[in-house]
Specification:
With 1530 residues, the protein is of the alpha/beta class. 34% of the residues lie in helices and 17% in strands. The chain is built from 41 helices and 61 strands. The strands form 20 sheets. It has an eight-stranded parallel β-barrel, surrounded by four helices. Strand 43 (1072-1074) and strand 44 form a beta hairpin. Helix 30 crosses helix 41 and helix 37 crosses helix 39. The two termini are 35 Å apart.
Length: 1530
């Protein structure tokens, strides 16, 4: 088992309706793949199915199994739920998922790489280590000679051989036209010997064990040789005129063109200047003329497409005379004549659908004249349709003529064509499209055979390829006109195979090819899918499944010519192709060749260290990058002989599989034809003479250079040089760097290409110098292609020989001083950490390569080693390359986790968060990068939010990375802000300072990666320490729970100035610190910021309402009980007028202008008592009163104290008595917008209902507290939502509080059972039990809007009012989300059925993607877009007047969901299950936002439908808190 941090886990997020069949996901064996639910699927009962087999069972493509979900937390939370696969089997595997009645709502494929092994010890050969060489098998001679010929590959450093097919070839001798797929070709057996597949297998295994070489070969599924014995016996296996009659017109045309050849050869067209010798374009024009004048009129192809009009008319006339009526069910009532294509494709075989004719041509009567009139109309229509068909055939013939002439042009006139010479039967005008296994006869005689099935079954279509065709379409199937339009570039030696849809359609062919596949897979380690893009997918699927049954770790290679990466992926994912062949020859210059090197493998130099658990990301297919393929034209002819070495070097430096074709290294100056070449490859002889054609050795061509390059390629891949950098030095010189991220060794290969022949093209002599960072340890190799005196190339008759006049001058592993290519290098210093060696070239001639091995300078190497040593305490992945510091700094002697364990959660707020305003209060600010922007937080989260995206994308060009490379400012910023703090925070700062000291002195290009590693390690250690200080709910919670819990750190901190008034000195565990302002000891309690960044500092940080809505979620549920107690008691000390302040203002500048904050405080106190062990003891806690009376000046701490239960009693008594006062300092000083009447605060309890009632139309005493500000719109001083009267949530909160007090009194925990008040001049005593009962009895009659309510004010029925007794009565009936708060805190007030109905309406009308609409969208003043900067004459929106009139606030969602869950439980399991789905689905949107937000928070509000609102706080305390409460309720 791997250590957990080294086990590679990839996570695939599933999203509804996301089909990823054309997306490539590659995995290695040993990985774990996890499927997790995206936002659109969370809460649904999703089923994931896959055909990946259970361990120990065989793979069956069509057998799917359901994966089991794992829920790490065991709670109703889908954010961490996953199902997984332990990847141990190679191949292509499909997955799909669905929910409910939808079986498949998305899916895709994963491709698992095979594990290849070589040597007697079966060591792993990584895919990127592969160096392959292609051999045309027919050029190997007899099997006993193969080792000597194959040894050339071994001695050239290759570790894999690709054989073209070894089966018996067809008459054409093409390597890919096989006469018998099952036999090992007899040509490989000498006289008297009979070699079999067993002998081949023995050689392949010997090469694997002794030579450390693997072998692959081609499989050809598309076609067979036209002379294959079995195809003649089983013509149903090809496309013939019996099973594919749609090809009959094409066959007729094909025979006519063949006879045209014979007529031209026989001199038929001499008179017009057309002879067998076609030499110019005039001849082409004459051919075109003959086609149109002689050929096309003779064969009358249009007759296959037309209707015989007279016959159709006669049939129609007879039907009319018999009184026939149309069957409308067959035509679906639609008029229009339909022509039925003759399935046998006979001349004039098409017929008319008489049903459509009867419906379209209806006689006025059945009189003979009317019938004839109809027949006449039908005849006109049929003639018109036949004319249209004639036009279509004319277009086919036009295209056919163009294709024929294009073919003739290429084969006989084009300079780059084969120049076939005069026409003959061997070299006809064009290649025949069909087999014709009969003696010559006239065209007329042949046409008579077309209706003889025993003969036409032998007219089989040849295979080929179609330029620009859809690779997913079979061009020989019905519907394709490729053959009749002559668009096929035809292989006249091969018959295209017809598989049908499955084995049942052609049993012999499937069985034959299955056996062929089994033989191949038994004896070879891999296959190359020949002509893959034209192989039917279902055929290749089936055959590869068969092959993998025989050879589970089958290496599958293919070359695709789809022209589209997306189409490539269809084949790669469906078939499990391991490597796609990529051609260096596709590059037109060195720049493009360098781009291909970068494209096909590796990550950028200095890339970030990726976590072991990370998202599964789409990738491109693994490349097999070849300097030349056996299909390519000869590079010496296209470029120059001198380019062979440098281009080969560039390919070898690619971080992928690489390779070549036999002959390239020997500098064979022509293409080795897969069809015509019959000579043998030379054998290996280390002492081969320079002029030998039959033998090659180290001095032949560039073999010595290729050996060094192949060794280098394999070494780089094996040793983890996975990072690549390509530098285009000039138009011909490319420098390629391969870098190892653990040892920081590099190899830099400088290649001077020679795309043009230096003998005819002028190359610069002044090669620019290069600057290579680090210390050059050695020259790994330097090689130059040089001319020698060994004679000129003469093509040998028996052996495939190369150019003897060139060889490679090579040195390996030499000191820099001994180099013949470079001058002595100078060392320069670029800053304190960049040591650069300047390289000047003296012999970097075209065709040269030099590769340097580079390490960091010794000091930097030591510093990087120390960095990796200290990072290895966090992950074993840093152990490689680590070096312990002999004199470690004191700050690093203690593990970071131990330092972190000393931090409090308030310290964590400083370490991880604090927005710009909070930092500015301390005299600093968040880090800013000129021209880019400012971090969201000064703490580590500010960086982690940015680095997360940079790391995932390896975005080394990001301004943050540039800033890190340019200077140490960011490191110093991080360290300085921590070191200036006291205690443990300073120690963490010192630890970072010591780590950054190492970092500052390593090469700058490495700094972003290691900086990220240090930050990630510090951040994750801090999070671990954080969660250990929190409750078990958080510690055992899901990722979502933990993300939300971090909101407790975001929002809860200690500012420069105490925000809370002092607590009683008699209370234990109060934190103290030395004031940075006074130097005196003072209390420094944590407070809750309402939101960031707008409500984070000064008097605007602490708000009574916000604090106590958020306190349960952010403090009680997270386990911060002592800090929660301190806040509760501090606010209790500010009680005045029976209220606690909304704006706290340190108590001294408090505003008592809200009716609800005190009830939120009581609710929070109730939650504290129920959540905290011995929580009831808080009721006895001393409260130091700042305002013992309404009119008193602020008292000193401890001057007046009373137990908390007395404070509670005062609140209840004052409300029952009635509260009436005018705010102090009323006027513009405290509110520049409010009208004078708004400063009057009146609150009382309605004696009739028990409802807390208050406010007026000029103030807004609940959370919906927007005051109009626009003089232009005339809303200044007018509350948008006064909500005076009895606000629904206050009724719920007050009911909850009174019920709780009654319960406390009954338990002896609260000394009062009621309160004395004055009513009508008399003192009366009101029992709390009576008050509780009164609200209970009054609530539903007062707030429920029944279906029977006929009031004109009613806008919606089946809801609960937002208020009762408002000064504007219509406001009572507005649909808002506030009633859900009452449902959560006082569910006893609600009838279950009514509550559910109201919740369903709220869900339908108010629930948005993230928040709840604050007003019914059907309301006339609804406006869902909040723009506080807009000032116009619109009363309802100017200056953000609609703040609570539509915009979607997040915190009410928590109460809505909790209410839904509560009442769903009451309605049974089915309703509850459905509600859980809703809740999970809603919360998934918040989780997604939380993860993606750079603030790592949830906003205050959004505009309508979840749109971003720029005026909202980016993260809000109560938004985070109320959702955490939902997750707690699960």
């Amino acid at each position: 088992m791997l250590p957990q941090d080294l086990k590679q886990i990839r996570v695939l997020i599933l999203n509804d309706k996301e089909n990823l069949e054309r997306t490539l996901f590659r995995l290695d064996q040993g990985f774990e793949l996890q499927f997790r639910l995206g936002p659109s699927l969370q809460g649904r009962r999703v089923t994931v199915q896959t055909n990946y087999p259970p361990e120990g069972q065989a793979f069956e493509r069509n057998t799917f199994r359901v994966l089991t979900w794992k829920n790490p937390t065991g709670r109703e939370d889908d954010s961490d739920k996953f199902c997984c696969l332990d990847i141990k089997v190679a191949g292509s595997f499909q997955y799909y998922f669905g929910f409910g009645d939808t079986e498949k709502s998305g899916g895709g494929y994963i491709v698992v790489n095979p594990i290849l092994r070589v040597g007697s010890e079966n060591r792993v050969l990584p895919l990127d280590c592969i160096s392959i060489q292609t051999y045309l098998s027919k050029c190997l001679g007899t099997l006993n000679d193969w080792p000597a010929r194959l040894q050339v590959a071994k001695e050239s450093g290759y570790n894999m051989i690709h054989f073209t097919p070894l089966q018996t070839l067809g008459l054409s001798r093409s390597c890919y036209s096989l006469a018998d797929q099952l036999t090992f070709s007899p040509e490989f057996s000498p006289d008297g010997q009979n070699y079999t597949w067993t002998h081949v297998g023995a050689l392949v295994e010997k090469m694997r064990k002794e030579w450390n070489m693997l072998c692959i070969t081609d499989v050809v599924y598309n076609h067979t040789a036209a002379n294959s014995k079995w195809i003649l016996e089983h013509p149903e296996c090809g496309y013939n005129l019996v099973n594919s009659p749609h090809l009959r017109p094409a066959w007729v045309l094909d025979r006519a063109i063949w006879h045209l050849t014979t007529r031209i050869v026989n001199g038929r067209y001499k008179d017009i200047g057309l002879t067998a010798n076609i030499t110019n374009e005039n001849h082409l024009n004459e051919i075109r003329s003959v086609l149109w004048k002689d050929v096309y009129p003779q064969i009358k192809l249009w007759e296959f497409y037309q209707v015989k009009v007279d016959s159709a008319i006669e049939q129609f006339r007879t039907l009319l005379q018999d009184g026939a009526k149309p069957d409308h069910s067959k035509t679906e009532g639609e008029k229009g004549l339909m022509i039925i294509q003759d399935p046998g494709w006979r001349r004039y075989g098409n017929t008319v659908d008489m049903n459509s004719a009867l419906q379209t041509f209806v006689p006025h009567s059945f009189s003979p004249q009317h019938i004839e009139d109809c027949c006449h109309l039908l005849r006109q229509k049929l003639n018109q349709l036949n004319e249209e068909q004639l036009h279509i055939v004319h277009q086919h013939q036009e295209q056919a003529a163009n294709c024929i002439l294009g073919n003739v042009m290429y084969e006989r006139l084009a300079g780059h064509g084969p120049k076939l010479g005069p026409l003959s039967k061997k070299n006809p005008l064009v290649t025949r499209y069909f087999t014709f296994p009969y003696q010559d006869m006239t065209l007329e005689q042949e046409m008579q055979m077309i209706d003889e099935p025993d003969k036409t079954c032998n007219f089989m279509a040849h295979n080929g390829w179609v330029m620009g065709d859809d690779p997913l379409r079979n061009f020989a199937e019905p519907g394709s006109n490729v053959y009749v339009r002559r668009e096929l570039i035809c292989w006249g030696d091969s018959v295209k195979l017809r598989y049908g849809k499955g084995p049942a359609d052609c049993p012999f062919l499937w069985a034959h090819m299955k056996k062929y596949t089994q033989i191949t897979a038994k004896y070879f380690h891999g296959v190359r899918l020949d002509n893959c893009h034209s192989t039917p997918l279902h055929v290749a699927e089936y055959m590869l499944d068969v092959a993998r049954t025989v050879c589970p770790n089958l290496y599958v290679v293919a070359e695709l010519f789809t022209g589209s990466e997306e189409l490539d992926n269809i084949f790669v994912t469906d078939l499990g192709i391991t490597s796609l062949i990529r051609e260096a020859m596709s590059a037109g210059d060195s720049h493009e060749e360098g781009r291909l090197v970068y494209r096909y493998g590796g990550e950028p130099v200095g890339a970030f260290v990726q976590p072991s658990l990370r998202p599964l990301t789409p990738c491109i297919a693994h490349a097999m990058f070849l300097d030349v393929t056996h299909d390519n034209e000869c590079p010496i002819q296209l470029r120059s002989a001198l380019d062979s070495l440098p281009s080969s070097a560039m390919v070898s430096m690619a971080c992928c599989a690489t390779g070549s074709t036999r002959g390239y290294d020997e500098l064979v100056p022509h293409q080795i034809s897969v069809v015509k070449e019959e000579r043998f490859y030379p054998k290996w002889n280390p002492s081969a003479s320079l002029t030998s054609a039959s033998e090659v050795g180290p001095q032949t061509g560039i073999i010595a250079g290729k050996l060094a390059l192949n060794k280098l390629h394999q070494e780089l891949a094996a040793q983890g040089f996975i990072q690549v950098y390509v530098d285009q030095v000039d138009e011909d010189i490319v420098a390629i760097t391969r870098h190892c991220p653990s040892t920081h060794q590099s190899v830099v290969a400088v290649c001077r290409t020679a795309f043009k022949n230096p003998k005819t093209h002028h190359y610069r002599t002044d090669v620019p110098p290069m600057f290579i960072p680090g210390k050059i340890e050695e020259v790994v190799l330097e090689a130059r292609t040089v001319e020698r005196h060994a004679g000129s190339f003469v093509k040998d008759d028996n052996f495939i020989n190369g150019m003897p006049e060139y060889t490679v001058e090579i040195k390996e592993h030499i000191p820099l001083q001994e180099s013949s290519v470079v001058y002595h290098a100078g060392v320069t210093s670029k800053g304190r950490s960049e040591f650069v060696q300047e390289i000047s070239f003296k012999k970097l001639t075209p065709g040269s390569v030099i590769a340097f091995r580079i390490s960091l300078d010794p000091k930097a190497q030591k510093l990087v080693g120390a960095l990796r040593y200290y990072l290895s305490q966090f992950s074993l992945k840093y152990r490689k390359g680590s070096i312990a510091d002999e004199n470690p700094p004191d700050a690093l002697k203690m593990p970071l986790a131990q330092l972190m364990s000393k931090l409090t959660l308030a310290d964590m707020n400083v370490l991880l968060f604090r927005c710009d305003a909070e930092e500015q209060e301390d005299g600093g600010g968040c880090y800013s990068i000129p021209g880019w922007g400012t971090f969201k937080y000064a703490g580590l989260q500010g960086l982690m939010s940015i680095l997360a995206d940079i790391r995932a994308n390896n975005d080394l060009g990001h301004p943050v990375c540039s800033n890190l490379r340019q200077g140490d400012w960011l490191m110093e910023y991080i360290v300085n802000r921590l070191i200036q703090k006291e205690g443990p925070l300073a120690q963490v700062g010192q630890w970072l300072e010591a780590m950054f000291t190492y970092l500052k002195h390593i090469p700058r290009y490495l700094i972003p990666s290691y900086f990220d590693a240090i930050l990630v390690s510090t951040f994750t250690t801090a999070l671990d320490a954080t969660f250990k200080l929190m409750s078990s709910f958080i510690q055992s919670g899901s990722s979502f729970v933990r993300h939300l819990a971090l909101g407790s750190l975001q929002m809860c901190g200690v500012g420069r100035v105490p925000a809370l008034p002092p607590l009683s000195m008699k209370i234990d565990d109060i934190p103290y610190c030395i004031s940075p302002i006074t130097g005196q000891k003072e209390q420094c309690c944590v407070t809750v910021a309402a939101g960031l960044p707008h409500f984070s500092t000064g008097i605007f940080r602490c708000w009574g309402r916000d604090t106590f809505i958020a306190l349960r979620g952010l403090m009680l549920l997270t386990g911060r009980h002592t800090e929660a107690r301190n806040i509760i008691l501090a606010f209790a000390g500010t009680l005045r007028h029976g209220l606690i302040p909304n704006l706290l203002g340190e108590g001294r500048f408090a505003r008592y202008n809200c009716r609800d904050a005190v009830w939120w405080w009581l609710q929070c106190l109730q939650d504290y008592v129920s959540h905290v062990p011995q929580g009831q003891s808080i009721l006895q806690s001393p409260v130091t009163r700042m305002y013992p009376t309404d009119d008193s000046e602020p008292c000193l701490p401890g001057e007046v104290e009373q137990p908390l239960y007395d404070v509670i009693q005062e609140i209840l008594q004052r409300h029952l008595e009635g509260i009436s006062f005018r705010e102090r300092n009323a006027g513009p000083k405290i509110d520049m917008h409010m009208k004078d009447e708004g400063f009057n605060v009146v609150i009382n309890v309605d004696p009739a209902t028990g409802f807390v009632h208050g406010g007026n139309r000029f103030n807004c005493g609940t959370w919906m507290d927007k005051m109009g500000e626009s003089e232009k719109a005339k809303n200044k001083g007018m509350p948008a939502t006064p909500r005076d009267g009895a606000a629904v949530e206050i009724i719920g909160l007050s009911k909850s509080a009174i019920r709780w007090i009654v319960e406390l009194h009954a338990k002896g925990l609260f000394p009062y059972d009621g309160a004395k008040v004055h009513r009508n001049g008399k003192e009366v005593f009101i029992l709390y039990t009576k008050w509780n009962e009164q609200i209970q009895q009054s609530y539903e009659p007062s707030f429920w809007v029944s279906e029977e309510n006929q009031s004109d004010l009613v806008h919606k029925k089946g809801i609960y009012k937002d208020s009762f007794g408002a000064s504007s009565p219509w406001c009572d009936y507005q649909l808002r989300p506030n009633f859900t708060i009452a449902m959560v805190v006082a569910p006893e007030l609600f009838t279950v059925e009514r509550a559910w109905k109201a919740l369903e309406i709220a869900e339908k009308k108010l629930l948005g993607p993230l928040g709840m609409k604050t007003l019914d969208p059907d309301d006339m003043v609804y406006c869902g877009v909040y723009d506080n900067a807009l000032d116009n004459d619109n009363y309802n929106v100017a200056k953000g007047f609609n703040y609570h009139q539509g915009p979607e606030w997040l915190w009410p969602v928590g109460y809505f969901l909790r209410a839904k869950l509560y009442f769903a439980r009451k309605l049974g399991e089915k309703t509850y299950a459905k509600t859980v789905t809703l809740v999970k689905n809603v919360l998934s949107q918040h989780y997604t936002h939380l993860e993606r937000s750079p603030w790592k928070g949830l906003p205050e509000l959004t505009n309508e439908n979840g749109q971003y609102c720029p005026f909202s706080c980016e993260t809000q305390a109560w938004s985070l808190a109320t959702l955490l409460e939902v997750l707690y309720d699960f």
